[in-house]
From TrEMBL:
Annotated ranges, domain CBS: 283-351, 352-412
Lineage: superkingdom: Bacteria
UniProt GO MF annotations: magnesium ion transmembrane transporter activity
InterPro entries: CBS_dom, CBS_dom_sf, Mg_transptr_MgtE_intracell_dom, MgtE_N_sf, MgtE_transporter, PRC_barrel-like_sf, SH3_actinomycetes
CDD domains, per database record: CBS_pair_Mg_transporter
PROSITE patterns listed in its UniProt record: CBS (PS51371)
Source organism per UniProt: Micromonospora pisi
Keywords: CBS domain
GO cellular component, one term: membrane
Protein name: Mg/Co/Ni transporter MgtE
Pfam families to which the protein is assigned, alphabetical: CBS, MgtE_N, SH3_actinomycetes
Record keyword Nucleotide-binding present: no
Amino acid sequence: MTTPTRVYIARLAGLAVYDPNGDQVGRIRDAVARLRTTARNPQVVGLVAELAMRRRIFLSINWITTIDAESVLLASGTLNLRRFEKRPNELLVLEDLLDRRVTIEPSNRPGTVVDVAMESNRQGEWSLTRVAVREQTSRLSRRGHLHQLDWERAGGLLGLPETRGTANLLSVLENMRPADLANALQDLPDARRNEVAAALDDARLADVLGELPEHDQVEILAGLDRERAADVLEEMDPDDAADLLSELPPPEQDMLLDMMEPDEADPVRQLLKYQPGTAGSLMTSEPVIMPPDATVAEALARIREPQLSPAIAAQIFVVRPPMATPTGRYLGMVHFQRLLREPPAELVGSLLINDIDPLQPTTPLPEVTRRMATYDLVAFPVIDAASRLVGAVTVDDVLDHSLPSDWRERDSAAKP
């Protein structure tokens, strides 16, 4: 194997995995070590890679030819796509050991695991040999000393875990997209998943919740105190917050809505009034809205805002004031590609597509899907009886509600 003889595993997380043809097959998420009945160190038997289809598979350590700072190279392009499942005598190094509280022997000083190294011997067998432990200190202004310990000098590594922090695991997960982080959370034990979720900031947790199955969303929200839960709901898109609240009993819905800021709660309350499976229940109440006298330059600046999803930013909706939903009279829409082709000083009111009938809040999902497919739109306006824009249905929400209800489930995704 063309690779260093010692590799710290947290540094592998997120590295791309390539087959011999140079095609990327996934990214490394963890390493698998097998416990031994003797006093020998745990043997590293492989790595866990996540494929584009959100499936985690096992890569035998014998299939790997190269590990470097940027990638992992496989000896063969033939993969076993069976979903990885940890066996009773195995541990996932990052999931099970990162942030574990240990004692630094022989001094018995407390510390926290920040990384674990695997090392190969002359026979090519890989074992866990070193542990990076940060010593705990009572001084808030000072970080504890970082120790590089032999495996046997980190006491408590394989015992029952005490309550542990999440800082080091979060540092491994922090660069993941929300969908990938949600996927990683589903692989954690419930208690560990809730610890990590609670440690995320409100905006990050809001993004991740939108990517989780409904029952996981409810369980994580239930693990937060009500004030924090209300804060996270405020950070969610109104349609995602409404979907989550719809899974809760009405008294709990009302309590959380009352704790939210009124301007954040009002659009969510409105969405909750619509019948499930209709355009009103699918739509977001915060599409990109502009007046007809706005310029192309102003519209392009608006859709460049980083917090907008690609589906929301794909087109703007032009209305008479007021600009917040429900708006003044709906006039039409303009796709971002049209904006790119026009002079910056052109008014958006002169570029309108207004010959496509908008949806009504009561339009059923099959009709919504048909209309979006007919006109090749990624966002479709929804107006009320007074021709006021009340929201827009985006293609990602249509897909989310058209797929089987358990499509986000890891086990479901792994079935052939």
